[in-house]
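Look at one record.

>
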Amino acid sequence: MALAILIMAAGKGTRMKSDLPKVLHKANGKPVINYVLDTASRLRPDKTVLIVGHQAEKVIDATRSYQVVSVLQEPQLGTGHAVMQAEPPLHAFSGDVLILSGDAPLVRTATLEKLIAFHREQRAAATVLTAMLDDPAGYGRIIRDRVSGEVLRIVEEKDASPEERLVNETNSGVYVIDANALFKALKEIRSDNAQREYYLTDVIGICFGKGEKVSAWSVADADEIRGINTPEQLKEAEKILEQL
């Protein structure tokens, strides 16, 4: 089956305390986005789409050696809005869409291969990569049906109830979604949430609400889902990358 990869790289990264786009900060001398693009290329996708925004030209210039199509997210109205920008270059695409974050360089190719295989074995419309964390603070929570175990929705921490915040299965921000299901669901998401943004996570609940199968596959090493939002997290990622 065909595979397209979307990489979200539009963010400012204000907590990095630098005007440089977050994905261009270097880990062990190499831009963070390059680690993600290298991992993506090893999957041999039919098409890779890079979603840029803050200082878009700098990100495009830094990634010219990769076979990617760049699309602009301007203004930046959330992760769902970011993925909406990828619809034009994928208008004729039929297959699975793997969505990655440009600031999460630790996810391994083998993990993504297993995620894609699981998604296809399950014949799911959407599959999310999850991780079990002792301290899930800051992450979206995976809400499952207590009987069937199926994924009902993903709730962002700022929108979670006290009970939902106790859930320690967390969203990695990595998804495999059937292209047709993805772009149909994106037309239905709304921005009536704490952030006033269009959340990509809402696609999961929409797919479930339509009776489509939504699956989740949990990674064994929770370090793989770490994103980089602060200089301290960048230093932690560098140590892990040295061991890979």
Remarks:
- DSSP finds seven helices and eleven strands in the chain.
